[in-house]
Amino acid sequence: MKSNRYTSLAIALLASLALNSCKKFLDLQPTSTVTSENAYLTGDNIEKALNGAYNSFIGNGTRPGSNANYYQWEMILQTDIRSDNAHAAGGGEIDFAQIDYNTITNTNEMVRRDWEELYGAISKCNIVIDNVDKVTDPTFSDERRKQILGEASFLRAFHYYQLVKLYGGVPLEKHSNSTDAEVLRIKRSTVEEVYDFIDSDLQVAANNLPDGFGQPSIDKVRATKGAANALLTKIWAQRPDRDYNKVLQYANAVITGKGGYQLLQNYADLFDGKHNYNSESIIEIPYIAGSPNLSCWGGAFFFPDLDENGQINENEWRRYGTPSKDLVEAYDNAGDTERKNANIWFFSVPWADEFWNPCGDADTEIPFNVKQKHANSFQSGDHFYLLRLADIILLKAEAQNALGNTSGAINTINIIRHRAGLSDLSGVSSSALKAIILNERRLELAFEGQRWDDLNRYGVTVDVMNKLNEIKFTCDNGKQSNPTLIKYNFNQNSLLLPIPLLELQANPSLTQNPGY
User: Which ranges carry the SusD-like N-terminal domain (predicted)?
Assistant: First the structure.
C-alpha cells in the first residue's frame, strides 16, 4: 500500500469550525502548516487535519491528477459504465474500455489509481483518529473532540465501503505514516471483516455526531448522525451476510430521525444546480463554480458547455459515459419521463457514435448523462450527492419486502413513484416486487454510483450483463453496417476488480482476486 506516502497537503475543504462562529465555512488555508514540532497539539491543527480528510472528495486543481479522480468522476465509471447503464465512449482509452467491456487487467491504470486514492483518503482519516485525543489545547472542548472523532470515523468508513465493493476483502490499515515494513505489508481481511470494521467506525460516528450543526450549508457537507445511519443502512444491505432487520432499523433512524430529511417535491430540482443543501440531501460534495481548487472538473467529462444557442459546439470532443439504449428503454418502458428528462438529454454532436449514430448524421441526436448539468469549462459548481434520502427509502422498501412485509414495501416504494409521476403499485407479489424495486432504483439513482452495487447485491450481475442486448455499428461511405451484438462474457470473477499489479509487487502479503 501507498498510504504512508501521503501527507496532508491538500487545500482545505472545510473551515475550522466552532459551532458559534460566523467564520466563512470554506477555508483555503493549507494543512501543510502543521509541522512535526507542533502537530496536533492545538485544536486548530487537528481541525486542519480534518479539513484535509474531507478534501479527499475534491482534491486540488481543476484537471485530472488532483488526487480526487475517484470521487470527481471515476466512481461513475466503476458503477454506471461498468454496468448496463452506459458505455465508456470518450476517446476509446484502453483503461476505460476494459471497465466497459469486462476485459480488465491488473495493470489497468484506473484500477490502480482508485485503490491508491482511496487508501490515501483513509490515511488522512487515520491521522485524525490517532491524534485527536492528543490535543492538549485548553480551548479545545471535549464536545468538539468527540465530533471530530465521529467525522473522521465516518469518512474512513465511507472510503473502506468503496474499497470493499470494488476489490472485495482488502487490507485494513487502521494507522498511517508507519515506516515498519511489517505494518505496511498487511494481509487482506475477509469481506465480512472489512464490513465489520466499517460498522464499528460508523457506530463511533453515530454515537459522537450531532443531528446537525445549525445550518444546511454545514449539515449537508459534514458527517452527521443521519449520514452515519444512512451508511449503516447501505452496508447492512450490501454485505454478503446482509441483515435486513438492521437495514430497516437504520433506514427508519434516518427517515424518522432528527435530521429533518424530506423528499423534494420535484425530482428535477435535485439536479438543476439551484437547490444545494436541500432537505433530501444527507451528505453532498459542495463544489464551487469557478474555483481553481474547489470546483468539479469531473462533470465536464460527461457533458460539455453549451453554446449561446443551447447546442453542443461543433469543435467539442466526444464525452464519456454515453447512456445505453437499455437504460433509455427502461425509462420509456416505465413511462418515466420526469426522471428521464432530468437525467438524460439528447443533442446533435460533431462526432460519430457507434451505438447511436455511427455515420454522424447531423439530424440524429445522442444521449448524455446530465446529473451535473453545468460543466463551466472544467470548473463546475454542481454538487454531487454521496447519500440522499430516496436511496434510503428504497432500501427500506427492499428490507420490508425481504422480511415479508410486502404491503408495507409497496407503500414505501409508492412514495418514490408518486414523486416521479408514476402510478401506485398494488397487489404485487413479493418476488415481482423485488424486481420492481431493483428497476426503481435504476431509474431513480442512475449516474449516482449505485447500479453496479445494486446488481451485485441482488445477485444478478452475470445474468443481466450477459443477456444485455447492446449493439454497435460501423460506417462505410455513409452507410451504416449491420448491428454487432456486444458480448460481455461475465462470470462470478467479473464482480470484483483485480488487485493492482503494483500493489502486489509492493506488498508480498497481498493475494490476487480469482480470474486475474
Answer: 24-235
The position carrying cell 455515420 is 359
CA distances from 339 to 317, 332, 356, 410, 450 (A): 26, 10, 21, 20, 16
How long a stretch of residues is the chain? 516
What residue spans define the domains of the chain?
3-255+499-506
According to CATH, what is the number of the domain 3-255+499-506?
A: 1.25.40.390
Strands 320-323 vs 344-347: parallel, antiparallel or unpaired: unpaired
The single-letter code of the amino acid at 431 is S
Instruction: Per-residue pLDDT tens, the chain, 516 aa: give them.
Output: 433 322 222 333 333 332 232 233 334 343 434 444 457 889 999 999 999 999 999 976 445 555 789 999 999 999 999 999 999 999 999 999 999 999 999 999 999 999 999 999 999 999 999 999 999 999 999 999 999 999 999 999 999 999 999 999 999 999 986 656 566 689 999 999 999 999 999 999 999 999 999 999 999 999 999 999 999 999 999 999 999 999 999 999 999 999 999 999 999 999 999 999 999 999 999 999 999 889 999 999 999 999 999 999 999 999 999 999 999 999 999 999 999 999 999 999 999 999 999 999 999 999 999 999 999 999 999 999 999 999 999 999 999 999 999 999 999 999 999 999 999 999 999 999 999 999 999 999 999 999 999 999 999 999 999 999 999 999 999 999 999 999 999 999 999 999 999 999 999 999 999 999
By CB neighbour count within 10 A (0-12 exposed, 13-18 middle, 19+ buried), where does 516 fall?
middle
8-state DSSP, 79: I
Strand 366-369 relative to strand 344-347: parallel, antiparallel, unpaired? antiparallel
